[in-house]
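Troubleshooting: if your tokenizer reports a length mismatch, compare your output against this known-good record of 354 residues.
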Amino acid sequence: PAMVGEALARCLAGVRVLDLSQYLPGPYAAQILGDLGAEVVKIEPPTGDPMRAIGPVDEGGVSAFYKLINAGKTVVRLDLKSADGKTRFRDLVGGTDVLLESFRPGALARLGFGTEDLRRLNARLVHCALSGFGQDGPAAQRAGHDIGYMAMAGGLAASGTAARPVIAYPPTAHFASGLQAALAIVAALLRRATTGAGATIDVSIAESVLAWQGMSLSNAPARGEGLLNGGAACYQIYETADGRFVTLGALEEKFWAAFCRAVNRDDWISRQGEALPRAALIGEVATLMRTRARDAWVDNLATVDCCFQAVLEPEEVAADPQVQARGLVTSTNSITEVLYPARFDGAQPTRRQP
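Known-good structure output:
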């Protein structure tokens, strides 16, 4: 069997990544590549990545969020506006495989590193530009953050209550675009292995959300009225007697029937197919769920095959037996890290270097 983490670390061994990006989406993409075995060098301006000051900070004034998203990388300060910085950066680009950046469209070109400049420096370079709305179009130069990308691309309209949408957390668009960027980069590296040619990749944070909206755009249910967004009693979040919450995901008839029998409400079984939204049935189940505390329901339904799950608070997640058994969550002082969520050849991923 492979040593712990060995199989994962071999995947992109020998690949060097220059990460010019800041905040969350790009650094997350680069971290994925690092988790898969690439060497990641994070290039920051003289003032540092602004992410250093966002969230809870340590005694040195550095954010835990920054440390989490950039673990496993080597950090280098470089002033790309200075002649010396440009020279050093040209040397780095010439010897790297991947350049990941999150400037506004055109900003890197104004620094002297447009697409053709980069190709002259390194014809095998995989250059991924991760921007808010993409490299062209009327919104290309518009500033934004996760909440705006989610709003524009359909990520908020169908989620929440009938009264209003809700803010998603962690920032969904940022993590979604990081995944898309990392996947596109790996695909480009795979193509390069065959053709020898590099690539220029345009990834949009908003479009990473848009890519998930096919179902909504084809037949968008109103908030609180669809099968999967609050209109069904069998697929719902319920409050319990102690003000905690549980989820029921009994979409299949057998799971719904098992739940109904377990709570002594066989009369509900035939009502699963009522027209959406099933407000009356939701109300009846909600009334029942408020008669016991969350953990009492967990104990009562522990052996019932009905897709029932308690809503765990953050501090409860790491202590969950399944989470502990899989070994992805590790804690050091005030930082709780989650490792790469895949095993290669049976080997668990290793902890990232600070």
